[in-house]
Amino acid sequence: MEKSPSCQAWLESQDYKEINLDNSSSFPLPNNLPGFYEEPEEDSSDSDDNYGGWEIDDSMNNMDTGNSMDSMDVDCSVGNATPQCIPNPAGSTTRDHTNTSDFPKRYYKFPFLNVAKKLQKADTPYEKTKQNEDPNAPFFPFATEEEWQLANWLGIVLTHFILIQVNAPGHVPSFKTSSDLINHIEALPGLPPWNARWITLPEAPKDPQLLLYRDPVECLKWLEANPELGEKDYVPYEEYVDGEGTICCYSEIASGEAWNELQRKFPNLTINPFILTTDSTHLTQLTGDKKVKPLLISSAHIRQNVRAKPSKWAFLPLAFIPEGKFSHLEFQNPTQASLLPGILSRCLYHMCMREVMKPVSPFTVTPIEMVDSEGYIRKEILAPLFYIADTPEQALVAGLAPNNCIPCLAGTHLLDADHVQIPRTGQSILDTIKGIHQEFPDADTWRFAMVAKERKLNGVEEPWWIDFPSLDICKAVCPDVLHGLHKAFKDHCVAWHINLVGKLELDAHFRRLPKFPGFRYFTAGISKISQWTGKEHRDLQHSILPALVGAVPSQALRATRAELYFIYMAQYCSHTEETLSQLMEYNKIWHLNKNIFITTGARRGKKGTIPHFRIPKLHTRPHYPEFIRRLGATTNFTTETPECYHIEYAKKAYRGVSKKDYTEQMVRWLDRQEKLRYFERYIEWRQLQHTGYWNSDS
User: Fold this and answer.
1) E strands of 259-376, at which residues?
2) What is the pLDDT of residues 474-490, one digit of tens each?
3) Rounded to an integer, what distance in angstroms lies between the CA atom of residue 591 and that of residue 209?
4) HSE-CB for 27 with a 13 A CA cutoff
């Protein structure tokens, strides 16, 4: 019998061949699924030009998704089939390839071949910088290259210094103090500038909040023109694993249905779908309550393997949303004192978001000219595509009360169902808000929030996405792998097993597991780990099944195994309908076996056994296939990527400033760091110009 990957090695090292982990007839195991693989790097120039009945023209061998196809004479007619399904050609830069020839090819249909039109040539940011520089002072405002290198090192490594003394003869830096150095750095060319505005809620006139933000249109222009972000996808496509175009595959955002739907609305223009993400990040450790809420922005034109690397800076800090501490409020009763500050904080978030996103709204229907990384102008429509956030932040963005599903109408009492309910839409949320206003036209914020709570809303009267009629927020707020799968597994399933086995006994089981290369050995068990990161969650998932064998009922083991397989398969880099159906099969198996945790008393709280599984994170699992079909693989919308950027944009920035008015100082610190990075990369680009080759990974 085939065993799960996580416990195969341990079981083979023991003489436990008689252990039956499950009923194999009702437990499908993942096979070599076509959706799991990436396409190989193959030389198609020596092969037949007929792929599974789809004929391709030789001109396809140099085709690029949106970068150069408009300048080629591409024959897309294959009998009555239009557009054509073509394999990924040799030498193409449209995908990352592997060197494994065992992996199957990928085939692509481009229904919108003519939308990514290049207009006249324009200047990229590096070219503009070169035009504005003084030939006699190529490192201005620094006198020499050595002085620039010293300033770059000081600007990154040191925060304060008083006097620099250089022993090199004949060279004395033009800056003597930290203020001089900062002035030199701030004179460098940089990214879009920051703005500041005081936001005052009518309910808290004595508590203005400082909003620091950038123009999102300028940020998208920068991301579009940045040559470090590699080749981009400018047109959506359909991806297949067979030449006949029958087995659809979902990997990059461009292969999802959402971008294709947007493109049908504007068949003659380039769509620039962009991504937003926020997360409240604690800045202090152990003591204090200082935190910030960075708002980041990225473009779906950038491929996932680039966005996932913080060193590429593919997510730009767009704003720092104030947390909303209201110290001058007056309350009528203790209930209002407890709830009203949270209500106003939610209203403040949406008011700030409306202010930040205001410049984008006109360009959702009217195209704007943007320069790509090759220096060509394209007319583009800006469209918010999806929003990445953890579970509490998702409810805040959608305007819903906690414990309500965003993609469907499942309320608290339906969260333990094994299937999805009627889809929820953003318009239905707005209609509910409108109905409250019509029923209570004179209601103040407190009264409105109390009525909204009864109708499963969070009390916000004007969500920020009200300015984007084409955006369905219920389809844009994505489930999260990090919190919804990894963290949920530890918080719920592992906690139930601890109740079943006992904390000390389970620790003893982990200590008795044999050491094996590639698997973490929990020397002291798992109960002593106080801070869990994504790595610890994964290590736990690798080892928990063998630790549970023989200690818990087979039904509990079967439910756990199904949940682990769901987690593993949900993280595939690409999916087909077969993998999506297997995801649902694993979810079904979990629901068939979950009641063992109730009957054994493992699912319990402070008041005893909890007789249900109304957990929002568990309910979102049936929604994963629909989001994968719309937006590609879950790697496109997991919070793990933004979490890495929060370290750079929030935690490191906080450590680099004094602790008074820290948000304003963090913005200035980030601005200087961005200028140093940009100027460093620009100098490398200038030095490599004569070679005719620009390596964005250098």
Assistant:
1) 270-278, 281-282, 291-299, 316-321, 368-371
2) 999 999 999 999 999 99
3) 46
4) 24
